[in-house]
Amino acid sequence: MKTGTAKRLAAAAAAFALLTGLTAGCAGRRSDPSALAYVPLDDRPDNVERAEYLAESLGYDLRMPDAGLYATRLDGQPLNESGLPCGDRAALYEWVLAQEESGCDRYVLSLDQLLSGGLVSSRAMTGQRSVTLSDGSSMKETELLESLLDTLAADRHNEVWLLDSVMRLAPTVGYGGFGLNEYNALREYGIAARPHLSGGELTVENIVADYRLGADGQELELNAAEPLPDGALENYLAARARKLRLSARTQETLSDKKYRGFHLLVGIDDSSAEDSVQKNEIAYLSANLREGDALLSGVDDLAFKAIAKLYLGDCGWKGARASVRYIGGRETEPACAYDYQPLDVLVEQHMNFFGLELAQSADKKPAELSILVLTAPAEPERLGDYVWAAVNAVNENRTAQIPTIFIDAANDAYGTTVHDALTEQAELGLLLAYSGFLDMAIVTGTAISHGAARYARLTCGAPKEPDEAAETAFVRTLADSVVKDFAYRNTVRNDLYAYVRDELGGSPDNFYRPEIDRAAVLARLEEDMAVSAAPVLKNFSEGAILTGLSPWTETPCGELTLSNYRFPWERVFEIGADIQRAG
Asked: In whole angstroms, what is the distance from residue 92 CA to residue 37 CA?
């Protein structure tokens, strides 16, 4: 006899089979070897467009639900197509069932989206909430989790990457009524050291019980510039507890041998070098990782890391030797206030995750690729020397035919100087990967995941016949990262912050609070980007991309143009844009 959960699962699958015209019995049969089903963390560009570009550059056909099913809306903004400010958990669950019914056997699934409606919502949800399916039946969140995993585990061909996160130190400004005052007060509260738990004392309930205690065992005080709303601290701690319990339940479920084809990748969100509220959570989750699972800094790069790792497995990647050169002299410290580990440790951990062996200069066996990391300047008066060294290193690698990953981990210490120098003196399209737009942990994972995947594509995974669609997708993902960093972050974005605040009287963090002329902001973005992005686009359009290593092959990039600019979250922080490639 079927259990209640099994009945609900069968009903949901049957309903979707009818809706989509799918036939029962195709599960376990791979209908499309390139198909990859993907439930994003949310609808920001890193989790949507750039994930799509990366997957397509590796030959995958990335399948995603309708954007309205996973879109986040900040306070005061129109609800998404599901009538919610967050993702529709029931619809997403049923969408995954439909992919399985169709024969898909490659999955990258955000648990924050499936269980909480997205990253921002996962920081705000408290307690267990039921999920109502399209047939009217309900599931607890843990039942939904286990039902979904059981369904995917029934097909031994399935390869599944589950993405999870350690909740950051404070909730999101502009969501669920939280403002900057709440953020600052709760981040300070979260960053305080807690009692250190180890051995048998390191349990979920002990961790939760110690949330309110400092390292000395005394209750912590909450300090705020202005009074917080009633229940703000209680809700913050309840959201942490819920998030940790769901993560622990996931690990407990995956401990069963039937989940051999499942991999758990946990990202640490907005952390600190301090001994914070996250420390025991990180220790607990680390202690319960299985072989093949990983816990790494960075959350917005989780999809990149999972897609790249999936591809490395599919193409038979055996690893590679990579040299690492730090330029700037501050690699032994955290690169920004949101990292809890030194930069060189982050780089080493990500290299290990992708099977990149560190090549030393004294080794007889040479490095196969190079990772260049620009750090903040140890000697600010030598800023120009560091910029020259970075550009020179890129060009020397090209001359020596060494493929290169470039990481700008300087946290804006050089302003536009290094960007201008690279644009004027190097061919940006010949890089394997570049990143420098977000927090340094994310920058590291983004660059190394893209770079390792591209190197593998060029060495062991390239198709016998040229795949122009995949090559165009590669150009898009590289150009997207470079353009947004060089042309938007340090120039246009600053102008827009001032424009929205000073000329429109609005908030750069939410165009609906108060509501402003959004068409005017978009027009200003288009006008500024036409000027700021032009040199970068010219560099790509008149240059080449690296399309082969043995022999070294440089292929004309073709003209790149940008269109369809947008603000996905109706704020200045990030933008979306379509990249076209001609020729």
From this structure: 11
Q: CA 104 → CA 62, 67, 147, 311, distances in Å?
A: 11, 20, 17, 15
The residues, ordered by sequence, that sit 6+ positions from 204 with a Cβ below 8 Å of its Cβ are 244, 245, 248, 284
Residue 127 zone, left/alpha/beta (φ > 0; ψ -120 to 50; rest): left
Strand 356-358 to strand 320-327: parallel, antiparallel, or no bridges (unpaired)?
Answer: parallel
- Residue of 166, 211, 184 whose CA lies nearest to 302: 166
Tell me how far apart the alpha carbons of residues 63 and 47 are, in angstroms, rounded to a whole number: 13
CA–CA dist 472, 560 (Å, integer): 10
Tokens of 486: 């060089």
Helix locations, 175-301, DSSP H: 180-191, 204-209, 232-254, 278-287
Which residues contact residue 220 at a Cβ distance below 8 angstroms, ignoring those fewer than 6 apart?
189, 192, 212, 213, 214
Q: State the DSSP string of 85-146.
A: SS--HHHHHHHHHHHHHTT--EEEEEHHHHHHSSHHHHTT--S---EE-TTS-EE-HHHHHH
Bridge partners (DSSP) listed for residue 263: 161
Distance CA 297, CA 347 (A): 10
Sign of CA dihedral 229, 230, 231, 233: positive
Instruction: Give the tokens for residue 168.
Output: 């950051």
Tell me the β-bridge partners of 322: 358, 369
Report yes or no: 368 and 397 within 8 Å, Cβ to Cβ: no
Distance CA 163, CA 144 (A): 16
Alpha helices in 21-67 (DSSP H): 49-57
Residues 6+ apart with CB under 8 A from 509: 173, 174, 571, 572, 573
Helix 302-314 with 343-353: angle, nearest 10 deg: 30
Measured between alpha carbons, how far is 469 from 190 in angstroms, rounded to an integer? Answer: 46
Per-residue model confidence as pLDDT tens for the chain (583 residues): 334 444 344 444 443 443 333 323 223 344 577 999 999 999 999 999 999 999 999 999 999 999 999 999 999 999 999 999 999 999 999 999 999 999 999 999 999 999 999 999 999 999 888 999 999 999 999 999 999 999 999 999 999 999 999 999 998 999 998 899 999 999 999 999 999 999 999 999 999 999 999 999 999 999 999 999 999 999 999 999 999 999 999 999 999 999 999 999 999 987 766 789 999 999 999 999 999 999 999 999 999 999 999 999 999 999 999 999 999 999 999 888 778 789 999 999 999 999 999 998 777 789 999 999 999 999 999 999 999 999 999 999 999 999 999 999 998 899 899 999 999 999 999 999 999 966 667 899 999 999 999 999 999 877 777 899 999 999 999 999 999 999 998 789 999 999 999 999 999 999 999 999 999 999 999 999 999 999 999 999 999 999 999 999 999 999 999 999 999 999 999 999 999 999 6
